[in-house]
Amino acid sequence: xxxxxxxxxxxxxxxxxxxxxARKVAAQTTPASVAPVVVDPSYPFVLPPLPYAxxxxxxxxxxxxxxxxxxxxxxxxxxxxxxxVKDHPQVAELPLVQLLAKLNELPDSIQxxxxxxxxxxxxxxxxxxVMGGQGGxxxxxxxxxIARDFGSLxxxxxxxxxxxxGQFGSGWAVVLVDGSGKLSLVARPNQDSxxxxxxxxxxxxxxWEHAYYLKYQNRRxxxxxxxxxxxxxxxxxxxxxxxIAGTLGI
Length: 250
Ligand code: MN
Fold this sequence. Notes:
Radius of gyration: 17 Å
Strand order of the largest sheet: 2-1-3
Oligomer: single chain
Bound molecules: manganese (II) ion
CATH class of the largest domain: Mainly Alpha
CATH superfamily of the largest domain: Fe,Mn superoxide dismutase (SOD) domain
Largest sheet: 3 strands, antiparallel
Number of helices: 10
Structural class: mainly alpha
Order of helices and strands: HHHHHHHEEEHHH
Distance between the termini: 34 Å
Number of strands: 3
CATH topology of the largest domain: Helix Hairpins
Helix content: 40-55%
Shape: globular
């Protein structure tokens, strides 16, 4: 076992609050922590606070982008989702996972709004929690699953970035996880979520231009590469455990 790998295993087995944080401490106003994953929110939907300062992902993701992305873009998805379902009591009582899984059964008049804004709310709620980390490598069962299903973490990154770069226009690059822990890669356009197909998202990266354009302009590949430096593997590992336990929501 390499030193790097052993360290990652130790990290995954402890709480992030006592992580041997090697860098970026100054950029964070609160200790790194494993942010609670909102398993499955329901109406009225609320904008979850960022689990770290807007500057926490510098320099990979600039603070202004984080602020606009969370406070404006995600907030708009939440507001628009609430507006779409508020006059439909039977729809509004569905938690978000069900709302998206049953998208095709919803009234025609709100399907598009729920697709775009419900998908957007689910994606971004996940997205914030899987960032704010130190990058590096995951450990434990997640590391084993990555090695089994992709060959190596390096290979996963290569294939993930290829999927993200190949998504024409706006969308997401996503690692899916099934109930047995098997991982796979997919790209989805716009805010279309695998939750709409009854699948589960382990983690994903937002390749809409609003996620990177201020700092990276047209250089999506540079953004994709930099993003790995702020991935919060302990949170992803928590999501992986939840997926196998059947408790992973959005
Ligand atoms: Mn976005």
